Amino acid sequence: MWGFRMRANAILIVIAAATACLPFEPTSPSASADAGGATCPDAGAGVATLCEIQQTIFTPICAKSGCHDATTASMQLVLTEGQSFAKTVNVASVEQPSTSRVAPGNPSASYLYTKIAPGVPPVGSRMPLNGPYLSQSQLELISAWITNGANNL
Predict the structure, then answer these.
(1) Which of 18, 30, 105, 129 has its CA 20 to 30 A from that of 72?
(2) pTM for this structure?
(3) 89 near 152, Cβ under 8 Å?
């Protein structure tokens, strides 16, 4: 009996020690997390953030080799994490220099949005090149972020 208790206590100690090394990640019903566990800042209910767009659209769809990663940077546009804000908001488009890639508050005046929206863009091809194109909910997320000021959250 004594041997069983010793083994049980030893197992509990090992489990407690192992779990003590795991990172604490508080959860919030309004925060979003990517597959790697990184959590976006809480901007308030229903507020689109660049972080959410980065995790769900830019990184998995756009920032790929041959497209808008740091190495390729098609049209000098880099959409990798840590670069996308500086390369889009209030930055002139290479294809249409009179238009900002992202014009805070105005999706229809934002070159990036006109390139991903349904229809024929003002210059060049619709993105992502050759599809599949972004879903309506993805377009709405980007539009809402731009409409709300295209903040770096």
Answers:
(1) 105
(2) 0.74
(3) yes
